[in-house]
Amino acid sequence: MIPTRAQRPLGALIVCLAALAACPAGAVDPLPSWNDTPAKQRILSFVAKVTNEGSADFVPPEARIATFDNDGTLWCEQPMYVQLAFALARVKTLAPQHPEWRNTQPFQAVLEDDMKALVADGKHGLAELIAATHAGMTSDQFEEIAGDWIAAAKHPRFKQLYTQCVYQPQLELLDYLRASGFKTFIVSGGGIEFMRPWTQRVYGIAPPQVVGSSIVTEFQIKDGKPVLMRLPKVNFIDDKAGKPVGIGQHIGQRPILAFGNSAGDLEMLQYTTGGGGARLGLLVYHNDAQREYAYGPAGGLPDSKIGTFPQSLMDQAEKSGWVVVGMKDDWGRIFPFDPQ
Amino acid sequence: MIPTRAQRPLGALIVCLAALAACPAGAVDPLPSWNDTPAKQRILSFVAKVTNEGSADFVPPEARIATFDNDGTLWCEQPMYVQLAFALARVKTLAPQHPEWRNTQPFQAVLEDDMKALVADGKHGLAELIAATHAGMTSDQFEEIAGDWIAAAKHPRFKQLYTQCVYQPQLELLDYLRASGFKTFIVSGGGIEFMRPWTQRVYGIAPPQVVGSSIVTEFQIKDGKPVLMRLPKVNFIDDKAGKPVGIGQHIGQRPILAFGNSAGDLEMLQYTTGGGGARLGLLVYHNDAQREYAYGPAGGLPDSKIGTFPQSLMDQAEKSGWVVVGMKDDWGRIFPFDPQ
């Protein structure tokens, strides 16, 4: 944990309390990949108090809602969002049917692996890529396309399936929360239908508990079959101030725990910890270039357009008592696979 | 069940199969308020086959999704939608703060109990009523307002709380499905935030499993508190072709069982039963004026603007093998309370 002023005075007391409440002698550690630091103790202590019926902070199971960002919080988001890698791969797959793409941006940039030109094309280019690769088919077809791709696609550095490049400490935390009566949700800026084909298998999170960005779908009878057709039009962006809105729409309850890793998660953490009673806000801080990546100007690390963690977020975390989980010190293990 | 040609030949066989598979001698009847008719047997037989691992129609628990319309399917929708009764009551409560309403439609009509003028004002009037009574407060405030009202408001004919005017056979069916590994969802044209405060208590359906119509909400920091503010603007209408879209957005899985009662449920039943494998579509038919209400031109009953069941829906039910549950013959009991 990156210690903040607000957290230091309570640290020792919380360690004792959590040790008493959540880790009786001989009990199995529910979070073995978490180092024994204040971050871990804050989590154990929080879960202990909200699940203890005798505690003033007790929360009944039906209100134990925990929301997790996905990119950079549950799985690796560098060197690019996995969904962007999917979109780029999809352009290459579809290119033979679109000869015009060889001379049209942003497709030409993708086909020539010219990331500089792609970035120069900006948001407009991204929207065109999404429309060309994520729309024009039924939801069932897209589920199959995305599911097939993710079943085989590998991370360029770790040479493992992307779905293996998930954080082992977070898998343990999700299990621990569910074993403690929590319902766990993903609340991600990523595409809701890109995630749903595999979140049950990878995170134990069923499709209805995935909240994300979406494009418009339309009910149609196509060749006699009732389908949802995906249209090239944005429906909802589940990022920043959209995250509490997405939570309101999909969950209808204010979470008591939220875990993010970037400026896109600020409002979700504000909304979560701004409710009454016991609340816990957490942020992954990527400061481990050796085992994963190190980025975030708040810690004097290189800036990144992906998963930006600005100084203002660090300030807000300190002010609000959110736990900043430093990957380097707080996590004993990063991925389920053994490092190469 | 209103027998249709498609269902008749199989009736006797299904009764036998279901009796063997789902009701072994001495077992407790999971649906005691359902008469022993083909409708009940269709349900028992369906659940038996999708839960039997040895069956060709076996469906794993994570894919056992059942969706229920609310108004007219789970609770009484006559003489008017409960949410409309809420809106009208709310206008009267708020009237002292709005002296101008005494001379402005549709408010004047509400305050003077002039239903004829209200109906004449049509959709525009309804939109104004919703804006005045459902927007301009936070989601938390609306939850409290709706929750407080529903805790006390009574049905004009049955003199019971609206939340008591729910169908006992459906409460048993929801329990039976959940005991059989199903996830149960509401997919209603009603307001999502109007239903969520009480669906867990009344139906055992948690807020995240409620899909409904919604207005736009916006994340705001108000008086230092992070809130979702409700704006007077429609976000989504979860009716007709909107129901499969709402299912796609919220559930992300095609249901295997859907239960409705009106033309607004047609597309949900098409979408549900149009998937591969075993599927069951059901419709409540309100033909019991003595114990509840009788309406629906398809059966030669009076037409109703609420819960319309046209001949075209009856035709589609027959063509598709959907079960039409006739309240009069298929349900031994209607409500949890004893009739007056």
TrEMBL record, chains A, B:
Protein name: Haloacid dehalogenase-like hydrolase
InterPro entries reported in the protein's UniProt record: HAD-like_sf, HAD_sf
GO molecular function terms noted in the UniProt entry: hydrolase activity
Keywords, ordered alphabetically: Hydrolase, Signal
UniProt entry tagged with the keyword Hydrolase: yes
Domain of life: Bacteria
Any single Pfam family the record assigns to this protein: HAD
Signal peptide location: 1-27
SUPFAM superfamilies the UniProt entry points to: HAD-like
